Amino acid sequence: MTCQAVAVTFVGIVAMLSAPSASAQARPFTGPFGGIEAGAREDHVFFDVANLDTGETLSRYYRAVGPSGGAFVGYDVAVAQNVRIGGEVGVNIGGGRPVARLPDGRRFFEEHPRYGYRLSLRAGYLAPPRLLLYATGGYGGNRYRIDFNPGISDIHQWGSSFIVGGGMEYRFRDRTAVRIDFKHVDNQASQLMLGVPIRF
What we know:
Low-confidence stretches: 5-24
Mean pLDDT: 84
Strand order of the largest sheet: 1-2-3-5-6-7-8-9
CATH topology: Porin
Structural class: mainly beta
Oligomer: single chain
Number of helices: 2
Radius of gyration: 22 Å
Helix content: 10-25%
CATH class: Mainly Beta
Shape: elongated
Number of domains: 1
């Protein structure tokens, strides 16, 4: 095959992938998709801390925010002209590192996020012509490395719970969009991510 033939073939493939499909035009925000995302994640942990000198118990959340990134794949279907439902699987890394200290300032707990997963369903409303507003719910969890003094009970390296969230997705091409997505894993983490979904 000559260099010219290779160039013609390459151009043809690019044109085919970038050409708007009939389904994308007739039913936007439908079909399989995948993408990457980046943003910030707030991780938190709750403790009852007792002051041995006064007997007072302090109940509080210890929180920290850090950078996070991830990837996702999913599928959406049209159930009405402006209504979409779908599912999504996502993985992420990074996040905040909460540190808990005693009233005298001594550190007794530190949580290092490693990676996590998200399994969610979503329902969205299409605000023509290019914006999708959606709410999500599902299940997810995170893996942590834990540093703490002996004696703390009910602390695990794996944590999982239900997810709630929502977001918006703006389609600037038939197959390419940008989204802002928020997800909260109960009693663990909240994340706000900027993502780039690609429809296949």
